Amino acid sequence: MRWILVLLAAILGTVAASVAGVDFGGEFFKIALVKPGRPFEIVTNVHSKRKTETIVSFNGEERVYGADAMNIEVRRPQVAYSQIRRFLGTSMDHPMVSSLTENEYFPYTLTQNLTRGSVALKHNNEHVFLAEELAAMVFGHARQITNDFAEGPVKDWVITVPMYFAEPQRQAIIDAAEIAGVRVLSLIDENTAAALHHGVDYVGLENGAPERIMLFNMGSTSLQVSIVEYTTRVVPDGFKKNKTIVEFEVLSKAWDETLGGAQFDLRLAEKFANEFNTKLKNGQDVRKIPRAMAKLRAAARKTKIVLSANEEIPVVVPSLHADMDYKGHAS
């Protein structure tokens, strides 16, 4: 598919209502807001952050989102639901679904929705939430912070999806958005959205030759790579005027659904768990203890971030299990 950027500029320049562009990631979501006659803005959440954790937790009957929900996940992981996107439009035997409970030690109780054939999650043995319902809760929170930022309702959204999403997964995104009370104008592949953004300010080569670039997108749950070709051409624009049109085409794309930042977190958490298990008796495994494993995942995420700028970091998790601390190092 060939995208013409002058068309995008024309649409944005004449938009009659506010539109939100939602980058719905596996671990975080981000929102861009386009209002009539104004350049786009990045929406900030209640903590004045540009990205918000893709998670919903329950504190009794109250729903909690974002960083506050992450705090609950560490204390009560059985009532905190993250990695929601991986459940959408899939079945229980999908490798990325079964991996969450079998290999990544999330304490979820999954069940099959017989009507839709999709995944549902049991909550407190009292409620069953469809994956679309959980995603709709997150979308509802996203809608609220967008409306607050825009100082008015924003009903129209464009949502990014991974390039490997099949039709059932894309439809599940649309269904979740509709439950949340927003209208999806379009779904766009994540890498295509990045290519579009790059093309807005693209100048082109001096000789006018096509230029190819590679987009490397490693997210929380997957790796996606695209090869994109940009071209420019000059066309008449009124009397004695010309304008330059930028076009791009996605020539090829590839992905790995199993390789993402969460896998780095898991490797660190596994290292910490193995070291702590040497302190336990009777062959106990801290991975089987939901609260302890949630603490190790949180420590792994923090360690990964710190190691991005440091060669070594001491890791301490107080009262990990059985009144014992975990103390170690990562490099």
Automatic annotation (TrEMBL):
One term of GO molecular function: ATP binding
Cellular component, GO annotation: endoplasmic reticulum chaperone complex
GO biological process: endoplasmic reticulum unfolded protein response
Endpoints of the signal sequence: 1-16
Keywords (A to Z) from UniProt: ATP-binding, Chaperone, Nucleotide-binding, Signal
Pfam family membership, one: HSP70
Annotated PANTHER family: HSC70CB, ISOFORM G-RELATED (PTHR45639), HYPOXIA UP-REGULATED PROTEIN 1 (PTHR45639:SF3)
Protein name, per record: Secreted protein
Organism: Thraustotheca clavata
